[in-house]
Amino acid sequence: MAEDIIRVRGNKTLAGEVKISGAKNSALKLLAAAILGQGPSVIHNVPLISDIKVMSEVLDCLGAHIERDGHTIRIDTSDVDKYEAPYELVSKMRASISVLGPLLGRFGRAHVAMPGGCQIGARKIDMHLKGLEALGVEFKVAHGYLQAVAADGLHGAEVMLDFPSVGATENLLMASVVAEGETIIENAAREPEIVDLANMLNAMGAQVTGAGTSSIRVEGVPLSSLHPCEHTTVGDRIEAGTFLVGGALTGGPLTVRGVNPSYLHMAIIKLRAMGCTVEAGDDWIRVERTGSLQPVDIQTLPHPGFPTDLQAQFMLLAALAQGTSVITENVFENRFMFASELMRMGADITIEEHHALVRGVDHLEGAPVTSTDLRAGAALVLAGIVADGETLVRRIRHIDRGYENYVGKLNSLGADAERMRIDMDDDEE
Ligand code: EPZ
Predict the structure, then answer these.
(1) Of these residues, 61, 118, 229, 276, which one is catalytic?
(2) Residue 32 to residue 101: CA distance in whole angstroms
(3) Measuring from atom 28 of ligand 1, which residue has the nearest CA?
(4) How far is the CA of 294 from the centre of ligand 1 (A)?
(5) Pocket flag, ligand 1, residue 121 (CB < 6 Å)
(6) pLDDT tens sequence across 255-283
(7) How confident is the model at residue 427 (pLDDT cuts 50, 70, 90)?
(8) Is the pTM of this model over 0.90?
(9) Which of 21, 25, 214 to mutate to test the pocket of ligand 1 (most atoms within 8 A of CB)?
(10) What's the rounded Cα separation, in Å, for the pair 395 and 372?
(11) Is the CB–ligand 1 distance for residue 397 below 6 Å?
């Protein structure tokens, strides 16, 4: 069986400027929200990544008409007449669960295959269900499908989330915009992607206030009053953070353009604490390091805390720092698999439950490694760029899910990486 891998030659410096793509974790939900517009919405700055392709397939399956022109997607949802998201698509991408809220808003019912877990955790959806039940939705699970119905329509409610779940906040937002009356979402997620979604919903005629804070207020409006809109996706703060780590790792200077620096406030604080110089403008951030990397302690937390999606990248930085760092993963229950791959390259890491003790070493050695999730995969390629010798990164489909032209962008900054196809024995994992 053939498999694409990325071959990386080491001891390179990443320097220069790279344009950041639109945010994967926003664009996926903006496409789903277009269901509520009941007509042709246009979304700009959509990244060219496989997850967007899968979400487009899900929406096409529901009856939407999607045309892509570069980074712009025109999605006409006039003819959406189905409310079932099929297993074979949802199982490809668990973010498909984001159609649940808009389908309930549009039809008052939805059948969505239960999303599976993944390498980083169980990825439960109990908070989605509990919150939507408060809005009048009843759920049944049959044959692996979530069958949702709002028999008496959706009504506003005060919902307190146990945890500021991004997905639960988004589904609640997309259902509550057409619920009868007022909805308050307390302990809501505060990620910039939530603000982006609320801005698009408001452009469609919804009445959402407080997005970006822990308390979001929604005044329901009739579905008939919602209309299509044109919207531009915010820049991807996690892609930007990944490239900034590449600059910090190899010295830079490296500039990312097309992202709001305020989205990366905590990551910038940590880069500076590790000995980097970081400057920022309206839509760009520049990182440079001349001295040695200093150790750092990191706690991943919901925004504005340190983002879990940059944890692997900063573990790589810590692996080459002069001293010992402690990285605590508080968001997902199993997001340290990257550490075992990095140890194959010579890193010295001890995992104690959700703490990683990272003792810095003075160099890493290229080795064959395997991506466990898209952020770990991206970090492994960066590890190969800074290591001695050659690194082969496998399972790069994970990277393709969330990084547009990752190899091309890295090579434009001075990397020597290439995608290649190799034959794998069928029984190889
Ligand atoms: C979104 O996932 C992102 N994915 C993730 O990015 C990101 O890591 C995460 O938010 C946190 O920022 C997309 O937006 C597509 P959560 P989501 O609901 O919405 C538990 C990447 O690399 N939980 O905030 O699934 C859950 O298991 C990906 O781009 C429940 O227990 O995140 C997790 O441990 C990875 N019950 C924690 O909460 C629920 O009902 C955070 O989940 C919902 C969540």
Answers:
(1) 118
(2) 9
(3) 309
(4) 30
(5) yes
(6) 999 999 999 999 999 999 999 999 999 99
(7) low
(8) yes
(9) 25
(10) 8
(11) no
**Ligand 1: distance of its center to the CA of 115 in Å?**
12
Contacts of 206 (CB under 8 A, 6+ apart): 36, 177, 178, 198, 218, 221, 226
User: From atom 37 of ligand 1, which residue's Cα is the shortest distance away?
Assistant: 331
Confidence (pLDDT) at 428: 56
pLDDT in tens, 40-92: 999 999 999 999 999 999 999 999 999 999 999 999 999 999 999 988 888 88
Q: What is the DSSP string of 93-125?
A: -GGGGGGHHHHHHHHSEEEEEPP--BTTB----
Burial class (CB in 10 A: 0-12, 13-18, 19+), 122: exposed
d(CA 249, CA 362): 12
Residue pLDDT, tens place only, 113-132: 988 667 788 788 999 999 99
Please identify, by atom number, the ligand 1 atom nearest to the C-alpha of residue 164.
24
How far is the centre of ligand 1, averaged over its atoms, from the C-alpha of 71 (Å)?
25
Confidence band of 33 (pLDDT split at 50, 70, 90): very high
Angle between helices 166-176 and 100-107 (to 10 degrees): 10
* Catalytic site includes residue 276: no
Which residue, judged by its Cα, is nearest atom 19 of ligand 1?
167
Strands (E), 281-389: 284-288, 297-300, 324-329, 348-352, 355-359, 368-370
Percent of the chain clearing pLDDT 70 (strictly above): 98
Q: Decide whether any atom of ligand 1 lies within 6 Å of the 125 Cβ.
A: yes
CA torsion angle 402 404 405 409 (round to 10): -100
What integer pLDDT is reported at residue 429 of this predicted model?
Answer: 47
Task: Please identify which residue in the block is written with the tokens 């990084």.
Answer: 403
Residue bearing tokens 């006409």: 76
Q: Distance, CA 122 to ligand 1 centroid (Å)? A: 10
* 10 and 384 Cβ atoms separated by less than 8 Å: yes
Distance 167 CA to ligand 1 centre (A): 6
Residue 34 near residue 74, CB atoms below 8 Å:
no
